[in-house]
C-alpha cells in the first residue's frame, strides 16, 4: 500500500473505569490495550473477533465515540490532518462530516416517527451542509437512488420496510454527508443470508464508486473474506494478526485465527474436520491473563507464553502477528 | 423406516391480528423417526419457529389451526393426537415430557430470580416421581455431563452469573434431563460466537449419540445443518419448499430458493466467486403472493403458471421432494395443484 494511511492508530488504549470502591483500587475494564493499526486510503478493512474482543470499542474510538485513554489516532485524507485523540471542538465537527457509522440493527437504528426522507436528511440539517430545503431534497434523492430506494419510499415510515431495505436506508443516511471514512459495525449480522449478499455487494460498489475507506467490523470470517482486502483479528483488546485477506486465508500464523477458521461449520456434509477446540470462553477484560492474552485457551501454549508478552511484528511482507512461536507452528 | 415418532400432516396456522388473518404456516407435512435429526431451514419470517411451537401447542392465543391440521405423537406405546390435548395435565406429555425445547436466547429463557438448580429440580419433579434429593443429584450430574465444571456450585447460581455458552449448556442439560423422545432446538447456536458454537454442536452430537432422541433442529445456517442433520426441510413463507437428505439438498438443490440460498452464502473455498443475493425482499405475510409463494423472487419463474397455481409436492428421487414447477420439468403437476 502506498501513500499515507487514512487512519493510523498508535498505541491506542481504551479503559473504562468501574466506579470507585470504598476500599481498594479502582478497577478498569481494559477494552482496548495498546493497539497500533494503519488503515490504508481506499481500502475495505476487516476487523474480526468474538464478542467481548473490543472490536466495537475500537471502531467507536476511531470515530471519537468512545473515550481514548492513551495513544493517538491520526486521520489524514489529504485535505485535513487530525489527531482524533486530542481534536478540538471545531475540528471535531468537521471530522464528524468526514467519518460516519452504520449500525448493526436496522430495526433499532431508525426512528419510527420520522419519514425515510427526514431520516436521511437529518445529518445534512444537523451539520448545516445545505442551504435550502430544495438542495437537501436534491441530495437525499441522489443518495437514495444510489442505495436503490425509490422516491415513493422516501415518504414512508421505517416500519413499512423489510430488514434489507432498512439497512439500505441506514447506509443512505451514513453516506449523505459524503464521508471519506465509514465504520460498519456488524452491519449485515441481523440480516438473512439471501439479503446479506445484496447489502455486501451494495456497500462494495458504493465505496468503490465514491472512494470511501471502510472499516468493516464483523464476527463472521466468511463474510469478511469475501468483501475485505485486509483483515485484522482482535482478541481481548489486542490485535493478534493482520494481513491482506488472501494471505491470511492461505496461511494464518496465529493459533487464534486458525481456531476461528476451523470453527466455521462446513457446508459439505462429508467434511468432518474437527474444530480446533478452544477451551472455555474469552476471559474477562477486568483482569486479562498475563503474558500472551490468548495463552489460557491456546492449544500450543508453552511456559514462555504465560510470562512474556508477544511482540507485534511483521513476519512476512504486510503480514503481522503477535505470537512467540508463529514461525515454528504449522497451523 | 420405523414408524414415525411424530407426524405432522397438513399443518396450517393463521394468526388473528388487527390487520386480518396472517398465514404463518401453510399446509406443512413432515415426520420424524425416532433418533432422526431433521434440520428446518429458512429465513426470518418463514414460519420455522411457529411450526416447531405447534408441536408443543405453545403458540399464542390468537393462533388458529385449520381443521385439517393433524399432529400425532407416538409416546410410550400410545399415539397421542396433539390437538386433542386440553388440560395442563394432558399437555405435559408434549411440554417437557416427550418433547423438550432449547431456545435461541438462553438469557431470556431462564427465570432471572430463581437459581438454575431450582429450575432444573422443579421440572424434574413435575415430569417424574423423583424426590427433591434425587432430582438435585441428577441435575448436578447432568450439568457435569454438558461440561460445566464445578457443577455443585453452579447449581446454586443464577442465570446472570453464567456466560452465554454456559447458559446454553445449562439449557441443554435441563432439556435433556427429562429424557425426551424429541428435542426441538430453535436456533440454539445463533446467539453464540463461532468458537462457542463449535463447542455446543460437538456437545449436542455427543449427547445425541448417548441419549438417542430425535431432534428438530431449527436454524438459518445451512453450514450448521450440514454438520448435524440427517434430513433437511427448507421453508419459505410458511411452506416447505424442499425436503431431502442433507446430501441431496446441499449437493443437488432442486428448488430455486434452495439454490439461491446456497449461492448467497459466502464460502471460504471460493473467494473469487461474487456473492449472488436472492433478488428482492421477503414479501410481507399480509400479502402472500398467489401461486407459488416464491415466484416474486424466482429467476426461473414461468409466466402464467407459477404466479397462478400452487405447485404440488413432487418426489424427485427417493427421499428428495420439492414443490416447484421448474424442478418438475415445468410440465405436469398442474392437475394436483390447489386453486
Report on the structure:
The complex is a heterodimer of chains A (331) and B (339). Chain A is of the alpha/beta class and 331 residues long. Chain A folds into two domains: 7-235, P-loop containing nucleotide triphosphate hydrolases (Rossmann fold), CATH 3.40.50; 245-331, no CATH class. Chain A has helices at 55-62, 89-98, 116-127, 133-146, 151-154, 163-175, 193-210, 221-227, 245-250, 255-263, 303-307; strands at residues 7-17, 28-39, 44-48, 70-76, 81-83, 99-102, 181-185, 213-218, 230-235, 238-244, 313-316, 319-321. Chain A has an eight-stranded mixed sheet with strand order 6-7-8-3-9-10-12-11, with helices on both faces. The mean pLDDT of chain A is 90. In chain B, strands 7-8-9-3-10-11-13-12 form an eight-stranded mixed sheet, sandwiched between helices. In chain B, helix 9 links the parallel strand 8 (182-186) and strand 9. In chain B, helix 5 (116-127) packs across helix 6 (132-145) and helix 8 (164-177) packs parallel to helix 9. The longest helix of chain B has 18 residues, at 194-211. The chains are: A alpha/beta (331), B alpha/beta (339). At the A-B interface, helix 6, helix 7, helix 8, helix 9 and helix 10 of A face helix 8, helix 9, helix 10, helix 11 and helix 12 of B.
Amino acid at each position: 500500500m502506498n501513500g499515507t494511511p487514512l487512519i493510523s492508530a498508535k498505541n491506542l488504549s481504551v479503559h473504562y473505569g468501574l466506579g470507585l470502591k470504598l476500599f481498594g483500587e479502582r478497577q478498569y475494564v481494559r477494552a482496548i490495550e495498546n493497539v497500533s493499526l494503519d488503515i490504508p486510503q481506499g481500502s475495505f478493512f476487516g476487523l474480526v473477533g468474538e464478542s467481548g474482543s473490543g472490536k466495537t470499542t475500537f471502531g467507536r474510538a476511531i470515530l471519537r465515540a468512545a473515550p481514548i485513554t492513551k495513544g493517538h489516532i491520526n486521520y489524514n485524507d489529504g485535505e485535513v490532518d487530525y489527531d482524533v485523540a486530542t481534536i478540538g471542538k471545531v475540528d471535531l465537527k468537521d471530522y464528524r462530516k468526514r467519518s460516519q457509522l452504520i449500525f448493526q440493527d436496522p430495526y433499532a437504528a431508525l426512528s419510527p416517527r420520522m419519514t425515510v426522507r427526514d431520516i436521511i436528511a437529518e445529518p445534512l440539517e444537523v451539520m448545516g451542509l445545505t442551504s435550502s430545503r430544495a438542495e437537501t431534497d436534491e441530495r437525499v434523492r441522489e443518495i437514495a437512488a444510489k442505495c436503490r430506494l425509490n422516491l415513493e419510499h422516501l415518504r414512508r415510515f421505517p416500519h413499512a420496510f423489510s430488514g434489507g431495505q432498512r439497512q439500505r436506508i441506514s447506509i443512505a443516511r451514513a453516506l449523505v454527508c459524503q464521508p471519506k471514512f465509514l465504520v460498519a459495525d456488524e452491519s449485515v449480522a441481523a440480516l438473512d443470508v439471501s439479503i446479506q449478499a445484496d447489502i455486501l455487494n451494495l456497500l462494495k460498489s458504493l465505496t468503490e464508486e465514491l472512494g470511501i475507506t471502510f472499516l468493516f467490523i464483523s464476527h463472521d470470517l466468511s463474510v469478511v473474506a469475501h468483501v475485505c482486502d485486509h483483515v485484522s483479528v482482535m482478541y481481548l483488546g489486542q490485535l493478534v494478526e493482520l494481513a491482506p485477506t488472501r494471505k491470511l486465508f492461505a496461511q494464518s500464523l496465529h493459533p487464534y485465527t486458525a481456531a476461528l477458521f476451523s470453527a466455521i461449520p462446513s457446508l459439505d456434509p462429508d467434511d468432518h474436520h474437527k474444530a480446533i477446540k478452544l477451551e472455555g470462553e474469552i476471559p474477562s477484560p477486568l483482569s486479562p491473563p498475563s503474558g500472551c492474552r490468548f495463552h489460557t485457551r491456546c492449544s500450543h501454549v508453552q511456559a514462555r507464553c504465560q510470562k512474556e508478552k508477544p511482540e507485534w511484528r511483521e513476519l512476512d511482507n504486510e503480514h503481522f502477528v503477535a505470537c512467540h512461536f508463529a514461525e515454528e507452528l504449522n497451523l | 423406516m420405523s414408524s414415525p415418532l411424530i407426524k405432522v400432516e397438513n399443518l396450517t396456522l393463521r394468526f388473528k391480528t388487527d390487520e386480518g388473518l396472517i398465514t404463518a404456516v401453510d399446509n406443512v407435512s413432515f415426520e420424524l423417526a425416532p433418533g432422526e435429526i431433521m434440520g428446518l431451514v429458512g429465513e426470518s419470517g418463514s414460519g420455522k419457529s411457529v411450526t416447531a411451537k405447534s408441536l408443543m401447542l405453545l403458540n399464542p392465543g390468537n393462533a388458529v389451526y385449520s381443521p385439517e391440521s393433524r399432529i400425532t405423537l407416538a409416546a410410550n406405546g400410545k399415539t397421542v393426537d396433539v390437538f386433542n390435548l386440553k388440560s395442563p395435565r394432558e399437555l405435559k406429555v408434549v411440554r417437557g415430557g416427550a418433547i423438550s425445547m432449547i431456545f435461541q436466547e438462553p438469557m431470556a429463557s431462564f427465570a432471572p430470580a430463581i437459581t438454575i438448580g431450582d429450575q432444573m429440580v422443579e421440572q424434574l419433579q413435575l415430569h417424574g416421581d423423583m424426590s427433591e434429593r434425587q432430582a438435585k443429584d441428577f441435575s448436578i450430574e447432568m450439568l457435569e455431563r454438558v461440561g460445566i465444571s464445578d457443577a455443585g456450585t453452579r447449581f446454586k447460581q443464577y442465570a446472570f452469573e453464567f456466560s452465554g455458552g454456559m447458559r446454553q449448556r445449562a439449557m441443554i442439560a435441563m432439556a435433556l434431563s427429562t429424557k425426551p423422545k424429541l428435542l426441538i432446538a430453535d436456533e440454539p447456536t445463533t446467539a453464540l460466537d463461532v468458537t462457542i458454537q463449535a463447542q455446543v454442536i460437538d456437545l449436542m452430537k455427543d449427547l445425541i449419540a448417548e441419549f438417542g432422541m430425535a431432534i428438530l433442529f431449527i436454524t438459518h445456517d445451512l453450514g450448521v445443518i450440514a454438520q448435524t442433520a440427517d434430513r433437511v426441510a427448507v421453508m419459505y413463507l410458511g411452506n416447505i419448499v424442499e425436503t431431502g437428505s442433507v446430501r441431496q439438498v446441499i449437493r443437488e438443490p432442486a428448488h430455486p430458493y434452495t439454490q439461491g440460498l446456497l449461492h448467497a452464502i459466502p464460502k471460504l473455498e471460493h473467494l473469487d466467486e461474487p456473492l449472488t443475493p436472492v433478488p428482492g425482499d421477503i414479501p410481507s405475510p399480509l400479502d402472500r403472493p398467489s401461486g407459488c409463494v416464491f415466484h416474486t423472487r424466482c429467476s426461473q419463474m414461468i409466466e402464467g403458471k407459477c404466479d397462478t397455481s400452487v405447485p404440488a409436492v413432487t418426489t424427485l428421487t427417493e427421499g428428495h421432494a420439492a414443490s416447484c414447477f421448474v424442478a418438475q420439468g415445468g410440465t405436469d403437476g398442474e392437475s394436483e395443484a390447489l386453486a
